[in-house]
Design brief:
The protein is an alpha+beta fold and 400 residues long. It is built from 9 helices and 18 strands. The two termini are 26 Å apart.
Length: 400
């Protein structure tokens, strides 16, 4: 058995256990992929996770509605792991034999991979515990509704599942990184993300007489261009406040100014302070931009999530495990993403870190997340299990 000295402990490689489990895990992942479920409706997913954990002689606990958590091992609780289990309202276009059978629902973000990896970690740690090689407890959390802002992580926290957890780790698929490689960084790895909907109302009329109307369309055009510009000048540019519209709709005829319309989009920020500041400025900015046109504004600003901030110590644990299990040449510095991730609520409560798990077949196509044709290389599962299980062993070794 290959081992390494870490602090005061000798830690074994988990590769033999992982290799033994890999075929079973791939089969489990394909079943999840074939049967995706949306946020807070992951009923079948919850049941199959419970069944797999019980079959591994573990004692999982069902969360309220959907989701599962389980403690592996005995003694003090050393660390928590989190996987998200929900799918997206996306039509699958992969053509795989195990493609989604639920029309318009797909695991287009890799949550089936995340869930499978953490199931594999739980099973690996159980085998280590059975051989007397664990020495503490690890809590594995299969969380619902990451895709439904502000996220199912808040449900995990309100249920008290995180109360005893001293530190927590997670991973996320990255289709831009080759399989066999992981990406890490210290500091913010994701961004804050909110949704915005602005309804604009006024007197409509003929396009030949705009002076007799409250021109909703013109006001909307100013909001669409000026609000991002104003926030970009009032917030530190290093925080990269980004307001992007995904929907703009008004009117039904080219010669009629409509009486109502709306814009909807997202606001993203690289750091938490800017997120709070931009949120406080948003309402004032929208109303000031719209004021000259006499229209009525109804702003719906839904707070999403803050950034996930990776702490140095937890990132160091991941990198130590990765150096030993997959080699130092397979760790790269990952850029901060502008995407939002509700794991941020957990890292605001306890120290934690998220890694990027490479899913691109070497020499293969580069996909993007939230696309119906996303096909991760399943070899990433064994990589994720090895790094996450190895990280748990290092967290246990650091206990006093």
């Amino acid at each position: 058995m290959r081992t390494v000295k870490y602090r005061k402990a000798t830690i074994p490689s988990v590769q033999p256990w992982v290799q033994h489990l890999e075929p079973q895990l791939i089969q489990f992942r394909r079943d999840l992929h074939r049967n995706p479920e949306l946020s807070f409706a992951e009923y079948r997913t919850t049941e199959v996770i419970l069944a797999q954990l019980r079959a591994a002689d573990l004692n999982p606990v069902a969360m309220e509605d959907t989701g599962v958590w389980v403690d592996v091992g005995r003694g003090p609780l050393a660390i928590g792991l989190r996987a998200d289990i929900d799918a997206l309202p996306v039509l699958e276009e992969t053509g795989l034999d195990y493609a989604s059978i639920n029309d318009g629902v797909a695991h287009a973000c890799g949550h089936d991979i995340h869930t499978t990896v953490m199931l594999g970690v739980a099973m690996t740690l159980k085998k280590l515990d059975d051989e007397g090689l664990l020495g503490a407890r690890v809590r594995v959390i299969f969380q619902p509704a990451e895709e439904k802002m502000p996220g199912g992580a808040l449900s995990v926290i309100t249920q008290g599942i995180l109360d005893e957890v001293p530190r927590i780790l997670a991973l996320h698929c990255d289709p831009r990184i080759d399989v066999g490689t992981i990406g890490t960084r210290i500091g913010a790895i994701t961004s804050a993300s909110d949704t915005i909907r602005i309804e604009v109302n006024g007197r409509g009329g003929h396009t030949s007489r705009p002076h007799l109307t409250e021109d909703v369309v013109f006001a909307m055009s100013q909001i669409a261009t000026q609000v991002p510009a104003v926030l970009g000048r009032r917030i530190d540019v290093r925080s990269a406040v980004s307001v992007v519209w995904g929907q703009i709709h008004a009117g039904s005829a080219p010669n009629a100014i409509p009486a109502t319309g709306y814009l909807a989009g997202t606001m993203r920020c690289l750091d938490g302070e800017a997120w709070h500041a931009a949120g406080e400025m948003l309402d004032e900015t929208v109303r000031q931009v719209a004021a000259p046109y006499g229209v009525d504004i109804k702003l719906q600003h839904t707070r999403g999530v803050p950034p996930v901030v990776n702490t140095a110590a937890e990132t160091g644990i991941i990198e130590s495990a990765a150096r030993f299990e997959i080699g130092p040449e397979n760790i790269e510095l990952t850029p901060q993403s502008m995407g939002g991730e509700d794991f941020a609520w957990m890292t605001e409560k306890v120290p934690g870190a998220m890694l990027r798990l490479g899913t691109r077949t070497v020499g293969g196509e580069t996909y993007d997340l939230h696309r119906g044709d996303y096909i991760p290389d399943e070899a990433c599962i064994a990589v994720g299990v090895a790094v996450m299980a190895g990280s748990c062993l290092r967290a246990i070794a650091e206990l006093d």
